[in-house]
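Structure in, sequence out. Go:
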């Protein structure tokens, strides 16, 4: 190619490039200068979930419209008897109350409270919390249409914190019970109730967790939410997005008495089981096998020869109870009941409570790494027994424990045989949470009765050792990492 042809080709190429650049510049100018809504639409589509053109938060107004009339306000009147403080004789106010205390009125003082509830039967059956109406001399129910009724307490079940009350009315709106098992952490939920007396207040949030066990006398596997729940919300319904009631708002964790982001609801299936018995018999009968259990973590699983941390670890057996008669021992891990797996310790109390007293039940347990089946007769749930307190030279072993044997009277007071009282603690045991005053009952399932026996057991410890400890009125297994 000669020089003239080369120059002509380069000129043609330059013209083409200039035309292309001008074309795209014109398009960009029209896009951004005249089509101002195009960019936001593209951006919205880019971040929206697949199949949707716009992401939106859920709305609950239809639930409020349809089921809000079934939510009621409950006001109660009870009585409180004035009690003089029990003061030590050395207290500076002791003589004052001794001399002038008789002048304080002893007549019962009326007290008032409020809560929530919801109608489960068009003929006036209302579900609420036991603590809302328990001990009340008067219970009044107010509907959203401003009608008010004096209610009768049909039955109260403290174990589940469920109560059934009845008002004399017909053709009332009702709620629709749902299935809590289908609810998952992260699901949206909405509560309707009367916080601080503000009737039919609606709050919303998400499910934070399920199967929560709280440090109280109940066996309920609570649903934890972050729904704003305050005093007065107790007994009100917790709805899912389908408008079904999945729980009864029951408790809050708070340092001030107000909402702190931790609220707990009784699963509706647990509540309805109680409601059926309360409506029919005025009381609830539940099964009992006479054991106290705790969760199995990885350290305890290693100590007890489990493949993974699951099941309910038996930390105490009621003497003469169904489990004791069947041969269940502290240190056994219950992994199934009547063929139903027990993934967490909280699963067992629910299964036992649902069992009919007097029926036979089969437990699958793991004892020292071996699996076996045990049959027992289910008893009837009763109030817990409270053991006596432990009072307190010893040598420190490889665990960092300074212990001494319990005296005979101390053993009788605690209802134990043997045992070592912890007087001082350092090292691995202190890191694990062992405290002075604890009583060591077992080491890896072996009962201990002497300091020498404890020393011998510590010489052949593995990486983890499980100590069965009695602390005041409770028995727990404490895993100690000895490295």
């Amino acid at each position: 190619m000669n020089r003239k042809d080369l120059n002509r080709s380069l000129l043609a190429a330059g013209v083409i490039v200039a035309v292309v650049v001008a074309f795209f510049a014109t398009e960009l100018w029209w896009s951004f200068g005249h089509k101002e809504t195009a960019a936001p639409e593209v951006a919205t589509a880019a971040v929206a979930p697949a199949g949707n053109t716009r992401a939106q938060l859920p709305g609950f107004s239809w639930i409020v419209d349809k089921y809000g009339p079934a939510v009621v306000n409950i006001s109660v009147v009870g009585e409180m008897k004035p009690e003089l403080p029990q003061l030590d004789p050395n207290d500076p106010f002791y003589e004052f109350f001794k001399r002038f205390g008789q002048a304080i009125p002893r007549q019962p003082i009326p007290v008032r409270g409020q809560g929530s509830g919801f109608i489960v039967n068009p003929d006036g059956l209302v579900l609420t919390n036991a603590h809302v109406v328990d001990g009340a001399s008067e219970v009044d129910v107010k509907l959203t249409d401003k009608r008010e009724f004096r209610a009768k307490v049909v039955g109260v079940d403290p174990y589940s914190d469920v109560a059934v009350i009845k008002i004399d009315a017909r053709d009332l709106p009702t709620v629709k019970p749902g299935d809590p098992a289908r609810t998952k952490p992260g699901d949206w939920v909405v509560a309707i109730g009367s916080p601080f007396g503000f009737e039919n207040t609606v709050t919303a949030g998400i499910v934070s967790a399920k199967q929560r066990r709280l440090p109280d006398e109940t066996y309920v596997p609570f649903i934890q939410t972050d729904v704003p729940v305050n005093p007065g919300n107790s007994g009100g319904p917790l709805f899912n997005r389908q408008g079904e009631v999945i729980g009864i708002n029951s408790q809050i964790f708070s340092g001030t008495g107000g909402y702190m982001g931790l609220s707990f609801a009784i699963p509706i299936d647990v509540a309805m089981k109680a409601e059926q018995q309360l409506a029919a018999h005025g009381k609830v009968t539940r099964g009992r096998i006479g054991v106290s259990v705790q969760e199995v973590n990885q350290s305890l699983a290693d100590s007890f020869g489990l493949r993974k941390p699951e099941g309910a670890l038996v930390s105490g057996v009621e003497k003469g109870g169904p489990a004791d008669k069947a041969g269940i021992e502290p240190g056994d891990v219950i992994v199934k009941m009547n063929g139903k797996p027990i993934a967490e310790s909280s699963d067992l109390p629910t299964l036992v409570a649902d069992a009919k007293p007097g029926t036979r039940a089969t437990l699958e347990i793991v004892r020292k790494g071996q699996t076996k089946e045990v049959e027992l007769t289910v008893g009837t749930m009763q109030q817990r027994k409270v053991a006596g307190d432990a009072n307190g030279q010893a040598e420190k072993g490889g665990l960092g424990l300074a212990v001494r044997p319990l005296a005979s009277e101390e053993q009788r007071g605690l209802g134990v045989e043997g045992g070592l009282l912890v007087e001082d603690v350092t090292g691995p045991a202190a890191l694990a949470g062992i405290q002075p005053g604890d009583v060591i009952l077992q080491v890896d399932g072996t009962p201990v009765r002497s300091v020498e026996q404890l020393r011998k057991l510590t010489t052949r410890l593995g990486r983890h050792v499980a100590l069965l400890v009695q602390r005041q009125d409770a028995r727990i297994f404490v895993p100690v990492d000895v490295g």
